[in-house]
Each structure stands twice: as C-alpha cells, then as structure tokens.
Amino acid sequence: MASTTPQDTSVNSQNSRWPIGLLAIGILLGIGFRFFELDRKLYWHDEVYTSIRAAGFTRQEIDDELFQNRIIPAPELQKYQRIKPGSTAADTIHSLALEDPQHPPLYFLMARWWMQQFGSSLAASRSLPAILSLLSLPLMYALAQELFASKNVPLVATALLALSPFDILFAQTARQYSLLTAVVIGSSWLLLRAVRLRGWENWAYYSLAIAIGFYTHPFFSLTLIGHGVFIISCWLFVKKKKLRSHLTNSQFFLAVTAALILYIPWIYVLATNLQRASATTDWTRVSPGWLYLLKLWTLSFTALFFDFDFGFDNIWTYLLRLPFLLLIAAAIYKICRQTSNSTKLFILTSIFVPFLILALPDLILGGKRSAVSRYLISCFPGVQLAVAYLLASHLKTQQRFWQVVLAGIFTASIASCTLSAVSDTSWSKDLSYFNAEVAKNINKEAIANRSIKDTIVISDRGNDFTNMGDLLSLSYLLDKDVRLMLLSQSPDMEMLKKYSAPLVFRPSEKLISALKQNQRRLEPILEYARLFRVRRAS
Fold first, then answer.
1. SS3 of residue 96 by DSSP
2. Backbone phi, then psi, for 438, in 5-degree steps?
3. Most CB atoms within 10 A, among 170, 247, 421, 465?
C-alpha cells in the first residue's frame, strides 16, 4: 500500500478547499451584482406599469389626462410613478382587477408599501426585487440538501443561482419575477420536506407557499402542475413505502385544495374579467415559427450561465452557448443515470412539465409563450440543480478537468454580469429596448438646437395603446426641459405650425395619416425604434 506523506495531505487539503473558496466568492459576487447600480438600466415599459399599479393609478385615467392635445415637460410624467394622492391599497387592487387581472396583487401591494417607506426613485423601486431575490439563495441550498443529502451540491447550486446572469437581470427588474423564483424554489423544498416528514403542519406550510405562488404570478401554476406530476409519478414508479404514497397523495391534493380556497377572491376577479385578461396577452398568440422558438429556447436556458448577446441572428450568439447546452444535457443524463428514482423524477418533472405545457401549444397551435424567458422561470431551478449535481459529483473526486469547468462557468457568468452591469439596456427590456438610444438622440437634438425649449417630441396613444408606458420610461432619461406634445385621437394639427421640424415617437397609423393630409412627411432618425423627424412635404 502506498503511504501518504504530510506534504501530499497538505496538497489534497488545498485542492479540496479551493473549489469551496471559489463557491463562496461566487455567492458574494452574485449578491453584489444584484445591488450594483440599480438605477443604471432604463426603467422599461413593464416596470413603469408596476409603479403605476402600485401607486393606485389606472392606465385609462392617465391616458385620458395626458393625450389631450397638450404640451408638457417630460419630468411631469413621473407624477404617475408616485403614490396617487388620496389613494389606498384598494386602488392598487382595483387597477389590477380592472385592467391587468392576469397579474395577482401580492407583489404590487408589497411595491406600494415599499414606495410609501422609501420613495419612488429607480433605486428604491428596484431594491425590493433585489432583496427578494436573496431569499432564493438559502431556499436553493435547502432544496438541494433535501434532494441530494450532500454538502457540495447545495453549495454549487446556490453559487450557480447567485451568479446566474438571468436571475441577476430579473433581480434588478421592478417586477414580481424574483419573488416568483423564490416561491418556486421554496414551495419545492416544502413539498419534499412534507413528503419526507409527513406531518400535517408541513403540508400546511406547503399549502401556504402555493397560495403565495398563486398570488405572485399565474405561471406559478406550472410549478404546481409539475409537483402534481411528480407526486403521481412517485406513486406509480417508486416502489418503496407504497402505503405511505397513498397518504401522501391525499395530503398533497388537500394542500392544493386549501391553497385554491385561499385564492378564490382572485379566481373571481379573473372569471369576471376574463376577456380583458385574454386581450392583454394577445401578443403571445403570434406564431413566429419553430426556428424562432428554438433560438429563444437556446437563449433562455443558457442565460442561466452565460449571456453575451451579439445579435439575435448572429451565429456567434449561439455557437458560444453550445458548450452550455451540452453541459445541461450532460447534467440531465447524469441525473437520470446516477440518482434515486424520486430525485430523478423531481428534477425531470420540474424542468420538462412546465416547459412542455408552454412549448407544445406553441408548436401545435401557434404562439410564442415558451419563447418568453421569464415565463420559463419554473423550469430553471431544476436545470441549476442538475448542473450542480454534475459538477459537485466530479469535484468530490478531485478531477482537474471538472475544476476547470467550474471555474470556466463562473468566469462566463461573471463576465456576463459585468457586461450587463455597465449596459444601459438589455434583451429583457423587450419593446423598450431602444428607449435609451431614443433618449440620447432626443437630448442630442436639444443641444443642437441651442435652446432646449425649441425641442418638441410628438406622440399619441399608439396603435396598440402602449405608448404611455414607454413615454414614462423615456421621461427618466430625457433632459428636464424637453417637452412632449401629446395628441388626442383627434390630433390638433394647428399646434404643429409653430415648429419647423419637430420629432415624433411611435406615431399611430391615424397620426401618420393626419400628418400626410397636412403636407408633412416622416424622416427616419431611428427607424427601428420608430423615432422620426417631421418635415414639410416637398
């Protein structure tokens, strides 16, 4: 037998310590990234609506007040981002129920309370989701420990979540997605704990988590369906303790029933406003084609580890993500080969059940629900757990290759987060993606005019009535003296005669037609962002 010298022991100890140190550094960096320059990125359309709802306004009342053939300074729009005078939490609930019933009120009520305590600045609004995102870290550790009964897997899983470019991006977004992530992970941990311990109090905690999930986002239902498939699969395929499985099934469905009873008030709101909820989500029914879906699925799942964006149609955007797709595939394969049936079933159902519920209708009936990255949040913890298991099982054997892989993943994540931290926009800003560039061009125009009061930006409600959200988004970036000419559905063309070459942002077809009838033409400034200059027709 070979002997081990003290020097060998020291080297082995150092080799085992450095991955643990790397994981700890990764977790701390991930926490830091969540709070770094919270107000840098533009406050986009959906975040604006978070503040509108939390403040107690409705979109209709703001539209009716703004678009009245009037000229106002851009900063005046931000009064709709502060608590509406005389309003209460009931106004927040009423705003959602009336105009946005597919969004339950929990996060918006939390945002209202936060606004009352800390104000409505960008940093204040985004600090709430950043803090909520921290809840997911200890919950991920607990979930991994429940699944794998290991010291290394929970640490790796927590570090992967902490440094995830996707999770950091949405931790800095004033929406309910960081809370949804925490509830998805927390409810999964409580489910496994309740199955193991069997006590009714544990099922009560799980039921409460379900209710919180329902009141956070409707797509929490994807996680719950995954849980249901997991429970049924265990009953069918896990042979141990079969008698206990019957009791577990009953306890699970009783817990779900209790949560649904707690959710009845908002079920009533949805039922009575179903047409409105359907109309608000019409955009997800557009069929972009299978290649578009495949690209977005690739971008969404790899953004958990790497998020360099060279353009949607640039081949390098996808080639650089190929190693991370292979990593995910290898992790799922290892889970299937080396873990217990119950662990395997939990990981597979948590990833594939939510994904297939969204993807199959898109492929069969048409639509792009599965192409929206934030809608896939229910799938992502399972992916991170699988990758954590793959990495931790090899790190335990001191394999140099896998230590390099772990360091490479962390390097890719840190580089992605650093690039995101110094950018003023991101792919997650959706239809507001170019607003920062629009604002720079408008401000540059104001400087060129020498007198900023000569700079006027024309807009109306837009073809789909979404302009108000993006005008409020722009108001955070425009010079305080830039003025907006906000036209009604019957625009007053006489107002334009005072200005030789005003700018126009996202004009509706009706406004474009009115300009043409008044011998005006649109000269593109940023055509892809729909920013134009109005010229007299020659």
1. helix
2. -60, -45
3. 170
